Amino acid sequence: xxxxxxxxxxxxxxxxxxxxxxxxxxxxxxxxxxxxxxxxxxxxxxxxxxxxxxxxxxxxxxxxxxxxxxxxxxxxxxxxxxxxxxxxxxxxxxxxxxxxxxxxxxxxxxxxxxxxxxxxxxxxxxxxxxxxxxxxxxxxxxxxxxxxxxxxxxxxxxxxxxxxxxxxxxxxxxxxxxxxxxxxxxxxxxxxxxxxxxxxxxxxxxxxxxxxxxxxxxxxxxxxxxxxxxxxxxxxxxxxxxxxxxxxxxxxxxxxxxxxxxxxxxxxxxxxxxxxxxxxxxxxxxxxxxxxxxxxxxxxxxxxxxxxxxxxxxxxxxxxxxxxxxxxxxxxxxxxxxxxxxxxxxxxxxxxxxxxxxxxxxxxxxxxxxxxxxxxxxxxxxxxxxxxxxxxx
Length: 393
Known about the structure:
Blueprint: H1 2-27, E1 34-48, E2 51-65, H2 83-88, H3 90-101, H4 105-119, H5 123-131, H6 142-170, E3 171-182, H7 187-190, E4 198-202, E5 205-206, H8 212-218, E6 224-230, E7 233-240, E8 243-245, E9 248-250, E10 253-261, H9 265-291, H10 302-315, H11 317-334, H12 343-356, H13 362-389
Antiparallel strand pairs: 1-2, 3-10, 4-5, 4-6, 6-7, 8-9
């Protein structure tokens, strides 16, 4: 049941992401031609208006087909035809390419319509027809393009914030200064700290629960002492040294988190925004570490995401929804990476084209996409390696 909940959860997040693109595109004058959950040959599909809705046979991701993501170029259609077809319709294809070269889009549509009875079934003919349509993406003002593209990640971010706020209003988890766990072999274990010890001071500073990690990190590996209360007695522990772990100094303890009454809406919203910011900052740091070859054992694939989601489901609905929100936030942030075919890549291209004063042909988009697809291949390898064989490879 947990695995099913994880798969359904991911499907829901993908659906709301794509729904953001879909409704934003329609709102600014572009009518998407397809709205699919999953990829590959459709299991089921239906056409309503100009839009084909369907479920793909490969249950990974989904997509919205906004018409004309790239400006058409002469020779696009001819390059996809068999040699005998190119020869047979050489004159018609030449007129089509000439119209495209002159940017006579009305004439190009007329030439394509003349070819449609014999070539209309090809995928490139359909793509070209969409690219020549008045509502084609590449023909729109920059603000319309940015609105349609940014809406997908934005919906995931807003969904996470709303979900976190609701969870905080139902019940709030509060940090304590009571040690709940001591990692074996850690500096804390060597200093004989125990679960149940209540931390009163770190390096001579009286501390509140949320300040403990910050004060420990501030020691930067230098010797320091902890003051704890154990069995009603005040004890001085140390000196001990924090060790650097994933870019931060730690001593190997986890403090207890206790669930209490829910918060008011303003407080819950504030804590939700803070949590969102913390996760965002951590994600950006993680991406930076990956760029220099650090923390590759932290990358996860869809397999790991489903596994974590199913574990959270077994622990309870609240834990599952919390993880659900974290995944939604991560999905929105990762889609803003400035590489194609991610949304961030399209945002970069739209801004560059605005400065350039002219859209790029499809060939430029294809070359830029090679960078993103290469990055995906590396991340997929790392994620599957970690999820299936452990982070050590």
